[in-house]
User: What shape does this take?
Amino acid sequence: RQALGFYLAEGEHLVLELGKALARRSALLTSRILVSHEYLAAGLPVGFPMQLPRETLNARQMSQLSDTRSPQGVMAIVPILPAPSPTPGERAIYLHEIQDPGNLGTLLRSLAWFGGFRCLLSPDSVDPYNPKVVRASMGAVFRLPFETEVTLDALAQQGVVPGDGALAAVAAEHGALSAQGAVSPTGNQAI
Assistant: This one.
């Protein structure tokens, strides 16, 4: 994934969520859609991202690419985008060594639902583009800004110090993260 700069988002729900995210993140327009002949024959659902290039695969090709036992017949090849710069008022949560893909996907989904958050992942956390993370995020991976390989030392250099306060109290001001209270690192399934 990292070497190629793309990841797979499998299933109709994720493809539809990708379509919704295109308006906010135009760089996602370099995504491509893969559909099976059977999926195409059933008719494309309302909200299908028609503006993205589409390729049709046979069932065997689709199952070779799929990470699931019963592929839905639709997936997207999505670019790995750099995190946008922090925005004023944005908060961040630092997740330390999250290893379970389902847990990370659920956390990303929750942060996206609340809005105004950025996710900072420590080294040794699960890859946020892991297929299980992407599925569990239910499309949040397209909308939520997140950074990987963020160390506590890097946060300390920005003046953010772990403490006993809120789960995450880091705000973005003038395009840089600054401490606004304390940051409690959370992770390794201790949530």
